[in-house]
């Protein structure tokens, strides 16, 4: 089962033959914490005048279901980052697609020095993947409230030194992404 | 001797109501990209070609420009492409998760991961603009009037940054008082460092007046500018330096606090060579 989670394990041949990359692509298919009450944490901006209502009436809306709230989303990210820091205690840089609105205060793991939160991870992946020994990228579009766009997809990538990759043979990456099934995030 | 020197600092004020008739969001960002490009060129005008070649990167930070991206009205990749088309040295990374403290967390990331041989110059822009003219962003109970604009900051890193940069998150839910306490602790025994703090309405300023009574602070400019999000400390330093041109090195502790309790502080130097630019207020034509 876990083998099917790891979509791709290929060596980068061109610029840096010493690096390998692993990817997981999944989608959230249900509420992540089954049987647990989920607070209605999303807050809507107060709308006061005609313009406010016009703007919100025109904004795009997603048809994808909303399965989690901000706290649950941060909980999943917190557990992922904590597990990653345990598996790779040294030289791990983590990029996460995460932006305003925050909804609530972020857990401290996500504010740590080896983590950067940004709107679009691609420019930073391009910059760092051949520069740092191990780069973990969490790029998700898990919807927390109605105005967000996406399809509840989550992509996790690991770029690392090939020597390290050979030592684990993908086992550590499977150890990281395997438990995502517990939250209803299934492999695409 | 601080290791972070402000080589250039500019602020482009933006009108609270930017449009007579609101354009498509792509047109709004194209206009803003032009302003960022123009401000970046202004800031870099004092650098030699050799120094320009040492500019490693440019972050774009914000607090309140999120709705266009959240709703899919536009993607960051489209904005980045607009910026890239307009010329070199424009931002390619967009960070707003840390709200008003985003500039500090960007700086921290840069200092942690930049290649040592390329880590001399860093550009950070801070953009806050009321692109949908929403009432909440004009005024709300948290900070009263908002102010909008684009700050661009050119920092030169001249040594290893240790305690000159602080990025933290409040542990309590009284983040304002906690922030003031950390600021006070940080500048203890740094009598030559002047504080540049965020702009807040009178009742919040009163907390700083009490908790930071003995510390040197630049005046709170909320009455002039409103709360300009992450730009506040930089606008504070800019206004003060324009009114009192530095004849020698002036040390400041620029500090920002986010609504969710994240804060950033950077000890920086402004000197007689710092490029200082305050532009006329702009609106979309």
The helical percent of chain B reads 25-40%
Largest sheet of chain B: 6 strands, mixed
Strand order of the largest sheet of chain B: 3-2-4-7-1-12
Number of helices, where a helix is a run of at least 4 consecutive DSSP H or I residues of chain A = 6
What distance separates the N and C termini of chain B? 45 Å
SSE string of chain A: HEEHHEEHEEHHE
Q: Beta-strand percentage of chain A? A: 15-25%
In DSSP terms (H or I, runs of 4 or more residues), the helix count of chain B works out at 10
Order of helices and strands of chain B: EHHEHHEHEHEEEEHEHHHEEE
Report Rg of chain B: 18 Å
Identify the most extensive interface between protein chains: A-B, 39 and 40 residues
What composes the largest sheet of chain A? 7 strands, mixed
From the alpha carbons, calculate the radius of gyration of chain A and give it in angstroms. 18 Å
Mean pLDDT of chain B: 94
Low-confidence stretches of chain B: none
Structural descriptors:
heterodimer, A: 188 residues, alpha/beta, 6 helices, B: 285 residues, six-stranded mixed sheet, four-stranded mixed sheet, 10 helices, 12 strands
Give a short synopsis of this structure:
The complex is a heterodimer of chains A (188) and B (285). Chain A is of the alpha/beta class.
């Amino acid at each position: 089962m876990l083998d099917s989670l790891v979509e791709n394990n290929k060596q980068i041949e061109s610029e840096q033959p010493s690096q390998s990359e692993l990817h997981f692509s999944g989608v959230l298919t249900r509420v992540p914490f089954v049987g647990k009450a989920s607070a209605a944490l999303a807050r809507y901006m107060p709308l006061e005048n005609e313009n406010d209502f016009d703007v919100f009436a025109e904004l795009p809306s997603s048809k994808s279901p909303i399965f989690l709230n901000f706290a649950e989303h941060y909980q999943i990210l917190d557990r992922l980052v904590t597990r990653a820091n345990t598996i790779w205690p040294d030289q791990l840089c983590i990029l996460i697609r995460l932006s305003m609105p925050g909804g609530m205060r972020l857990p401290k793991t996500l504010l740590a020095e080896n983590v950067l939160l940004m709107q679009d991870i691609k420019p930073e992946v391009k910059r760092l993947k051949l520069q740092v020994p191990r780069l973990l990228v969490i790029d998700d579009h898990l919807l927390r409230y109605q105005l967000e766009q996406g399809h509840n997809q989550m992509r996790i990538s690991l770029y690392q030194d090939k020597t390290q990759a050979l030592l684990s043979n993908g086992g550590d990456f499977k150890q990281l992404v395997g438990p995502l099934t517990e939250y209803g995030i299934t492999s695409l | 001797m601080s290791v972070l020197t402000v080589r250039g600092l500019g602020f482009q004020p933006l009108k609270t109501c930017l449009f007579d008739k609101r354009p498509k969001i792509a047109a709004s960002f194209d206009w803003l990209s032009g302003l960022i490009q123009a401000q970046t060129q202004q800031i870099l005008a004092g650098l030699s070609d050799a120094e320009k070649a040492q500019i490693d990167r440019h972050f774009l930070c914000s607090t309140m420009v999120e709705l266009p991206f959240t709703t899919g009205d536009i993607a960051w990749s489209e904005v980045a492409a607009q910026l890239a088309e307009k010329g070199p040295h424009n931002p390619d990374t967009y960070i707003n998760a840390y709200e008003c403290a985003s500039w500090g967390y960007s700086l921290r990331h840069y200092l942690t991961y930049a290649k040592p041989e390329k880590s001399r110059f860093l550009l950070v822009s801070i953009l806050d603009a009321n692109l949908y003219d929403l009432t909440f962003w004009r005024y709300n109970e948290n900070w009263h009037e908002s102010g909008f604009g684009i700050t661009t900051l050119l920092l030169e890193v001249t040594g290893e940054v240790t305690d000159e940069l602080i990025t933290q998150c409040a542990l309590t839910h009284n983040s304002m008082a906690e922030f003031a306490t950390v600021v006070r602790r940080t500048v203890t025994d740094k009598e030559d460092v002047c504080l540049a703090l965020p702009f807040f309405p009178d009742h919040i300023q009163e907390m700083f007046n009490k908790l930071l009574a003995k510390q040197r602070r630049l005046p709170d400019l909320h009455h002039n500018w409103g709360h300009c999000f992450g730009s506040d400390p930089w606008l504070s330093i800019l206004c003060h330096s324009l009114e009192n041109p530095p004849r020698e090195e002036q040390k400041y502790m620029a500090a920002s606090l986010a609504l969710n309790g994240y804060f950033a502080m950077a000890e920086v130097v402004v000197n007689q060579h710092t490029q200082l630019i305050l532009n006329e207020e702009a609106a979309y034509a």
